[in-house]
Amino acid sequence: MANDDFIGWMTGIQQTMEDALARLLPNPESAPQRLHEAMRYSTLDGGKRVRPLLVHAAGELVSANPEHLARIGAAVEMIHAYSLVHDDMPCMDDDVLRRGKPTCHVAFDDATALLVGDALQTLAFDVLATPLDGVAPAAQLEMVRTLARASGHGGMAGGQAIDLASVGQTLSLPELEYMHCLKTGALIRAAVLLGALAGTPLSAEETERLDHFAKRIGLAFQVVDDVLDVDADTATLGKTAGKDAANDKPTYVSLMGLAEARAFARELRDEAFAALDGFGPAAQRLKDLADYIVARSF
Ligand code: GRG
């Protein structure tokens, strides 16, 4: 379970990220005002900031500059915020609430929501490509490429396409895993790799082990999300969930059952931990975060 030191660290990073995002997002009083307001509405004041937390924890492993990590974390969070805005639109999941408030297209309108996603995505790359003092240009270029690949057709957008095509279908566990590795796993993996690129370079073998950690934790995040969805459905609707209740999509719980899905999340966490063996105490934040992600489903 999370200790006080970890909770204090997490709260501090969440505040740092709120400040960094508030600074980097466009001024709500400048034109085009409605777009700027909607970008801030969709990004600020909400969310657990799991991806920036992973950027910081991986960055600590390589003694990266915390100010650089805040910028990198902001870029990843902007991609995440854009994906949620588009995911909520009527042409995708058609959701009216996100983070306890009306979704962007409800609070503003569809066209604005589309533009918010576009503008957040390009701002993310602007932020990430702005030179970071003391970071080798080649390492920064690698960060840009890593984030682009994680977001595009071979990552998040591709996973979303597979997910949309799976409505009403039966997927096997390997097919479900492949979809989630792209849809949510790719960005989580990118967050870890970007943090690690910001400091003292790791060996290829160390990067490989960190990447394995990131893949396992990315999948655990999705399994936990499925478990939490069932808990929420059961609490509010009094039903046992099978497929994603609202969207008729297969989930880990529908394919494995609730108890097995919880056990699978723990197994993934343990595999993620094992991948960090050999990094020593510097990897403790990453382990604490992995624990925090999985403990949400207990
Ligand atoms: C539209 C290209 C495009 C992609 C959308 C990530 C995604 C792809 C859709 C999100 C749909 C969703 C609710 C997936 C479940 C897992 C997930 C990513 C939940 C939301 O992320 P959190 O829990 O959210 O990190 P907060 O609000 O804490 O930031």
TrEMBL record:
<protein>
    <submittedName>
        <fullName>Farnesyl-diphosphate synthase</fullName>
    </submittedName>
</protein>
<dbReference type="GO" id="GO:0016114">
    <property type="term" value="P:terpenoid biosynthetic process"/>
</dbReference>
<keyword id="KW-0414">Isoprene biosynthesis</keyword>
<dbReference type="Pfam" id="PF00348">
    <property type="entry name" value="polyprenyl_synt"/>
</dbReference>
<dbReference type="InterPro" id="IPR008949">
    <property type="entry name" value="Isoprenoid_synthase_dom_sf"/>
</dbReference>
<dbReference type="InterPro" id="IPR033749">
    <property type="entry name" value="Polyprenyl_synt_CS"/>
</dbReference>
<dbReference type="GO" id="GO:0046872">
    <property type="term" value="F:metal ion binding"/>
</dbReference>
<keyword id="KW-0808">Transferase</keyword>
<dbReference type="GO" id="GO:0004659">
    <property type="term" value="F:prenyltransferase activity"/>
</dbReference>
<comment type="similarity">
    <text>Belongs to the FPP/GGPP synthase family.</text>
</comment>
<dbReference type="GO" id="GO:0005737">
    <property type="term" value="C:cytoplasm"/>
</dbReference>
<keyword id="KW-0460">Magnesium</keyword>
<dbReference type="InterPro" id="IPR000092">
    <property type="entry name" value="Polyprenyl_synt"/>
</dbReference>
<dbReference type="InterPro" id="IPR053378">
    <property type="entry name" value="Prenyl_diphosphate_synthase"/>
</dbReference>
<keyword id="KW-0479">Metal-binding</keyword>
